[in-house]
Amino acid sequence: MPELTPLAERFLAMIANERGASQHTVRAYNREVRNFAHYLQSSLGDQAHISTVDHLHIRAYLGQLYQRGLTKASAARALAAIRSWFKWLAKEGHVSQNPALLVSTPKLPRHLPRVPSMEEVNRVLDSLESTPPTPGQNSPPKSAAWPERDRVIFELLYGCGIRNSELVGLDMLHIQWKNDAILVRGKGRKERLVPLGDEAAAAIRAYLPLREARLTAAGKARLLHDGPLLTNLRMRGDCRLTTRSVGRIVKSIALSRGLAADVHPHTLRHAFGTHMLEEGADLRAIQEMLGHERLSTTQRYTQLTVGQVQKVYDETHPRAK
């Protein structure tokens, strides 16, 4: 029986069951590790031993990805998954060292995310708090069937800077009213407390009676106090809203309020970090709230604000033209 496939499956099972990784991460690792294991079996034979794989095999695999037209970003994702697999293999004693560490990560162009201005975000939030767009504007989004819930989505994504997966993972018990905070479970099941602003708290309070009425009508009153904070419209299954639905809601509302077409939930997280930095917040405090493991990740927002300053300079200073 081939050795590579069982080892790949054991690693993927560990990722899914023990690390508490997001569904996106699990899907990506499943794809990348299985593709690489299949490549090894094709090139080395079904009876190949994992200990015979070295850095040259990994480089050859990345070269094949480039030949198929994949981007450097895609190759970098594949390499990250392969490194994690071999790190696990070394820990389990199947290999003596991690050969993927000898393969350099492809250098990627640094694309700073586009971030809407404070005025643009506040305009959207104010419109959710009051009335739908007027007839002269774009048509209201399909998600307008539950505007109170959708306002909570925007207020938490922008007001707390949490990830989409963290947002849909919030349960009622995670709201700590006495501390004006929410308990967020981030990557790797790491927990952190994030301040709950007045506007986000007000949005949640306006939404909860409607949530209670819908759950009760659907015969799911058991979820009132310890179920998911954000529920789907039809109260299907465990009633929890999905990340895909949040993405559709955010994009639909953003477009209807005049924001760019590429706005998505993570855009609001970027806006949170960027706007706080612009207003003088400490970089380490932002790191803590965003749940970044490394300060270097948070420092991207410094580059973003410097980039915005450079753009203003280039557009306005007479010696820059």
Provide a descriptive summary of the structure in words:
The structure is a single chain. By secondary structure, this protein is mostly helical. The protein is 55% helix and 4% strand. It is built from 13 helices and three strands; from the N terminus they run H-H-H-H-H-H-H-E-E-E-H-H-H-H-H-H. The protein has helices at 4-17, 23-44, 55-67, 72-91, 118-129, 147-159, 164-168, 198-217, 243-256, 265-278, 283-290, 295-298, 300-316; strands spanning 175-176, 181-185, 191-195. Strands 1-2-3 form a three-stranded antiparallel sheet. A hairpin with a 5-residue loop joins strand 2 (181-185) and strand 3 (191-195). The model is unreliable at 131-143 (pLDDT under 50).
Are there runs of 5+ residues with pLDDT below 50, and where?
131-143
What's the average pLDDT?
Answer: 85
Strand order of the largest sheet: 1-2-3
- How many individual helices? 13
By secondary-structure content and strand pairing, the structural class works out as mainly alpha
The helix-strand sequence is: HHHHHHHEEEHHHHHH
Q: What does the radius of gyration come to? A: 23 Å
Number of strands: 3
Q: What percent of residues are in strands?
A: under 5%
Q: How far is the N terminus from the C terminus?
A: 68 Å
- Principal-axes geometry comes out as globular
Major β-sheet, in short? 3 strands, antiparallel
| Percent in helix | 40-55%
